[in-house]
What we know:
Strand content: 15-25%
Low-confidence stretches: 635-641
CATH class of the largest domain: Alpha Beta
Helix content: 25-40%
Shape: elongated
Radius of gyration: 39 Å
CATH architecture of the largest domain: 3-Layer(aba) Sandwich
Largest sheet: 5 strands, antiparallel
Number of helices: 22
Number of strands: 26
Amino acid sequence: MTRAVTRAVTRRTRLLVAGLVVGLAVGALALAIRVASPPVFAPSFAEVKARHRASDLALLDRHGEVIHERRIDPRWRRLAWTPLDEISPAVRAAVLAAEDRRFERHGGVDFRAVATAAVERARGGPPRGASTVTMQLATMLDPALRRRGGPRTLAQKWRQMRLAWAIEARWAKYQILEAYLNRVAFRGELEGVPAAASVLFGKAPHGVTEAEAVVLAALVRAPNASRDAAVRRATALVARAGFTVAAEALESAVRGALEAPAGGGPRMALAPHAATRLLPETAAGSVTVVSSTLDGSVQRLAAEALRRHLLAVRARHVQDGAVLVVDNATGEVLAYVGGDPEFGSARFVSGIHARRQAGSSLKPFLYAQAFDQRLLTPASLLEDTPLELPVAGGLYRPRNYDEHWKGLVSVRTALGSSLNVPAVRTLELLGAEAAVDQLRRLGFEGLHEAGDFYGPSLALGSADVSLWELVGAYRALARGGVWSPLVMTPGARSAAVPRRVYSEDAAFLIGNVLADREGRSVTFGLESPLATPFWTAVKTGTSKEMRDNWCVGFSRRYTVGVWVGNFSGEPMRNVSGITGAAPIWVEIMSWLHRSSPSAAPIPPPGVLSRPVRLAGAAEAARVEWFLRGTEPADRDSTAAGERPRITSPVTGTVVALDPDIPVRRQRMVLEATGMLAALEWRVDGTPAGPGGGLVVWEPTPGRHTVTLVDATDRVVDTVSFEVRGGAR
């Protein structure tokens, strides 16, 4: 028995010595050949880093949080290049313990490891590689060194060693390790520690624990290992890496890594429509992340609120919606939710830039223009009675949403309660062409037609607008009448410069009216969903046949816009702006001001308040705001009907001259109501007579504009019409 043991020991010793001799011989031969061989070219560290391309482009919010990713390379999952000092020291220690314990002491090829591998092979052990980290990196950089279904040939092995020496001669050790950790393959499609840490553990590379680090290191050699095999390999590495890791923590890390989903889609998809606008389709140079002005928490809240409320009204044939939140001071977009990608009807369509009919959401801009031109005040009285206007297709008969008439109402009530006929009368005061020009200055770029194309229906939102344009226009009101473009990229500069569209005074009056719950009570009641416990100014809109719901409004700090409808254009069932879009608007605005309520704005110097009684209107006496110079002479009352208005002809009238009567014998009568004594009639800018009585005018073929002006040449009312025909 003793002789047998002696023979076995002797045999093992011989094999050990033989293996050692072989290893040393190989090392010596390799060293000699290396000295005699021409050098191999190795790319620089900077070149390798510059060629690195992430498989995903990331969209960052204003705080640097990833809110959306777009996959651009399906072959592997590789994240942005991560510097070595941003990778956990535990990962570095574990990987070197597993792959190259003498990394700091060899010059690219570890001849001691070669000898050890030869000895173990001679002892009958399994084949063991002796590739250093540098040699493995050489394989990553040179496609000719990669295996093609079997072990590398001697020629490939020699090429690998020579490239490793070249890398060591040109690179620093920390650069070699940094490149290796950014390129080493793990399970499935994962390449590099940053991708593996993110997908397997949901962490940035600097946050990997010791238990997770040894699991990552174990998966380098055995990426497809079973759970038990991975635990065994990781357990063996713990001591070699100098760690103290509990068995439970190790098993938990293995379980988390092996159970992580291996899907190829984006890991974060919070802002798909914003990503479509901001992220390029392919990687541009070394760009892997794009910063935005979005706020991840606001984006998340807006998306959740939209989804929840859309599901609540889904039975009423509502499928789609959109939300836009901006900062009033900067114009930066904080939330951009173009739709619900899971439950919406068209996940790739953005409801923020799609143009739809505006409904009543345009009314505030008409009244602001009338305030600035001093045609109206919030206390001016307008008739909410049946109205017929001639248009190209016949007669236009606007009606209110509730099909009821309110009689004589103040502008405050007309705008707050969204009455239609007073809005049409206001548009008639302004003229459709002037109103369209003003809307274009507010950023409504889809209004390509002349004012006559829209006609009186413009007051009720017949124009197509986008949520982006509406929110930008309401933000102009919040900023005292100054419009500037919205931005989604930090530091972005637009070719469009800020411009004043309304006076600060008119913008204040509109905000004051839109914030007045009593003013909107005629239609919506005092405790409607639009009422907030802090100061906000808000307006809803519903387009024809309930195809679109809008709710747009602002606080002192934010402007929020919501659209609800169907991308297909199909009408909803019994859903108005107050029930469709308003609840979403209120939830978002309340969340934004959960810790900082919005205070009412300070009145600018150009406005003043006066007590008024509205004679003839079913409204209580109140204190009203006016632009200076438009307040009533009698501080206690505002008389009904004091505003002059042209009654004949009406805008759009077509007058046909009788060809059998000489033109010089045909006449038109110009009529108006109100206080006319100090006014003057003008036709096409030419004086036509005093405003105190009827004026007879000789018509001439063509288009004409009739105006009433006061002593300061301020236009009080204007209409346009056409005269056709003439003597044969």
